[in-house]
Write a structure and sequence with these properties.
Length: 125
């Protein structure tokens, strides 16, 4: 039996957190949700995750800044964790911008949950 994969969801919208949790928990993933980049870094310092779903526009510390910090962490397991951006204004960014920041992929809002699930599975299989 494979161990439960742990996903950290960074998103300031409770509605999106709840929908995302429902979709991913159906697939038996263990979900932890936080509201901003600072909380992502706090969680990551205490536990390991297999994937991070990172909203780009969050208060306190946004997803791009948070990803940049994660990529520079001394712990190579944590610094190489797959990070998928969740963004409503992807038109403001190119895939190049996301790659430069260290993001592996992105899913646009409004979220297509089949696409979200397929993207998550791509990194967790």
């Amino acid at each position: 039996m494979t161990p439960t994969r742990k996903i950290l969801v960074a998103e300031d919208s409770s509605v999106i957190i709840n929908l995302t949790k429902n979709v991913l928990m159906f697939e038996k993933y263990h979900i932890t949700a936080v509201k901003n980049g600072k909380q992502v870094l706090e969680k990551l310092s205490k536990e390991d995750f297999d994937l991070i779903l990172m909203d780009i526009n969050m208060p306190i510390m946004d997803g791009i800044e948070c990803t940049t910090v994660i990529r520079s962490l001394p712990d190579s397991k944590k610094s190489k964790i797959p990070i998928v951006a969740i963004t409503g204004n992807y038109k403001n960014y190119t895939m190049d911008d996301f790659k430069k920041a260290g993001l592996n992929d992105y899913v646009q809002k409004p979220l297509d949950y089949d696409h979200l699930l397929a993207t998550v599975k791509k990194y967790l299989t």
